[in-house]
Design goal:
heterodimer, A: alpha+beta, Cytochrome-c3 Hydrogenase, chain B, 3-stranded antiparallel β-sheet, globular, B: 3-stranded antiparallel β-sheet, two-stranded antiparallel ribbon, 5 strands, 21% helix, elongated, transport (chain A), NADH-quinone oxidoreductase subunit D (chain A)
């Protein structure tokens, strides 16, 4: 028997599979991970502290840069929080535009995850297919908001732009196209034996662990907990749509893969219905004062982002800037279970486990 | 059967071989961008009324401006003297064009800002005035 010594291995912060600047300090014994210590903060910009000197409208572009893969949900959560405090009723057309934009963002976000996860596992072509479809969504959102990633589209009380002519039809046409492509993804990846061996039974945790670590989103639903804020605590106009909450029972990376891909289908269902119900005309911005001052007090709202529950807490002392602003950033919470999952695993499984958590470092570091 | 899934995947790849190319030949051809695209701002000095709203709303404080008295003594108000945008920190969020009451500052479709030195990213009034290609047609919703 060869005697091996424990050794420290740094993964990241400049490692392509960490999806940003995430560092892991691994204590390894041969090929087995004995202890994993995540080091975060390389992308910390202090959004919450900066927000204390900013007006509410000025904070919106900062939220774009937290979860930069699905910025629409971040835009929504801050607007929703201020609207809740000020008791603003958002016009119907604006609500539909918001939901369509958010669901498109969710599809785009899951496509990025699908592509990059497969890339992490060594498959190159799924990324190209996923990004082909994502590019279509990004182009649509670009037409709507004027930017490809940092949309800055929503405002307190509505949205900045109305849908351009023919835009809703484009979204409507995109839905069957995407359904078709999803079948292709399953053909390309889901049945692939190499992929199945890399994800089945890897990174498994139980329902209790998921709840104890306060995981949310696909990371929670993969253990069989049926919890989706769009269904359980409907915000905006989500109660008008018919869709299912996708769950799986096994709690491994394979389950998370299926939950995310099926969630794209559910988002497409919502998009289809939203385009159908889209009001022909109407206001896109409620009557709000030019300088927005949230009343004295506090509020916490939470919504379902592609990565989990994103929350926004505002404490206001009645000024035009918040006294304290806090975001509950789902990636940060989802990442907490990582050291536990990695213990005893081999290095080869490390990327497979980390990738399945679906973290965005802009959000982890805030 | 081992290998069946791989073969199915390969079939999908082969099916996609004949599909239309989705990529752009970007540096050789200009990128197709929508009218709403938020690129480098164009500034109209004659329209500006020096109300300071753009500088106040800017989330990164990248706009600096000064005004002077109107040279015609019969006219009230100020006219713009200097107007600088620091593109090292500008995030092209569009808030300055949103608040401008006279549409003196509007977005264009130009986005190529790479420079060899940081100082060159500091754009003044003359530069922003000359940036008059591909300007956004519809500026407010």
């Amino acid at each position: 028997m060869l005697r091996t010594e424990e050794m420290l291995l740094n993964v990241g912060p400049q490692h392509p599979s960490t999806h940003g600047v995430f560092r892991l300090v691994l204590k390894i014994d041969g090929e087995t991970i004995v202890e994993a210590k995540p080091v975060i903060g390389y992308l910390h910009r202090g959004t919450e502290k900066l927000a204390e000197d900013l007006q509410y409208t000025q904070i919106i572009p900062y939220t774009d840069r937290m979860d930069y893969v699905s910025a629409m949900t971040n835009n929504y959560v801050i607007c929703h929080a201020v609207e809740t405090m000020m008791d603003i009723k958002v016009p119907e057309r604006a609500e539909y535009l918001r939901v369509i934009a958010m669901e498109l963002g969710r599809v785009a976000s899951h496509l990025v995850w699908f592509g990059t996860y497969l890339l992490d596992l060594g498959a190159t072509s799924p990324l190209l297919y996923a990004f082909r479809e994502r590019e279509m969504i990004i182009n649509m959102l670009n037409e709507l908001s004027g930017a490809r990633l940092t949309f800055n589209y929503m405002r307190v009380g509505g949205v900045k732009w109305d849908a351009p002519e023919g835009w809703i039809d484009k979204v409507r046409e995109f839905v069957p196209y995407m359904h078709e492509q999803l079948k292709g993804y399953h053909m390309l990846v889901t049945g692939n034996e190499i992929f199945m061996n890399r994800v089945k039974g890897i990174g498994t945790y139980t329902k209790e662990d998921a709840l104890n670590y306060s995981l949310s989103g696909a990371n929670l639903r993969c253990t069989g907990v049926k919890w989706d804020l769009r269904k359980n605590e409907p915000y905006s106009i989500y109660d008008r749509f018919d869709f299912d909450v996708v769950t799986r029972e096994t709690g491994d990376a394979w389950a998370r893969y299926h939950v995310r891909l099926d969630e794209i289908e559910e988002s497409l269902k919502i998009l289809e219905q939203a385009c159908e119900q889209f009001p022909a005309e109407g206001e896109i911005l409620a009557k709000v004062p030019k300088i927005i001052k949230a009343p004295k007090g506090e509020a916490f709202v939470r919504i379902e982002s592609p990565r989990g529950e994103i929350g926004c807490y505002i404490a206001s002392d009645g000024k035009k800037e918040p006294y304290r602003l806090k975001f509950r950033r789902p990636s940060f919470y989802n990442l907490q279970i990582l050291p536990k999952l990695l213990e005893g695993e081999t290095i080869a499984n490390l990327i497979s486990i980390l990738g399945a958590v679906d973290i965005i470092l802009g959000e982890v570091d805030g | 059967m081992l290998g069946f899934g791989l073969a199915k995947g390969l079939k999908y790849t082969l099916k996609n071989l004949t599909k239309e190319k989705p990529t752009y030949e970007y540096p050789n051809e200009p990128l197709p961008l929508p009218d709403r695209f938020r690129g480098i701002q164009k500034f109209y000095p004659e329209k500006c009324i020096v109300c300071n709203q753009c500088a106040n709303i800017c989330p990164t404080d990248c706009i600096q401006l000064t005004g002077k008295k109107h040279p015609d003594p019969n006219k009230k108000g100020k006219i713009i003297d200097t107007y600088d945008i620091n593109f090292e920190i500008c995030i092209l969020c569009d808030l300055c064009t949103e608040v401008c009451p006279t549409e003196a500052i509007i977005m264009s479709n130009n986005f190529e800002l790479a420079e060899y030195s940081r100082d060159e990213l500091f754009k003044n009034l003359e530069w922003l005035d000359e940036n008059d290609e591909n300007i956004r047609k519809v500026n407010k919703a």
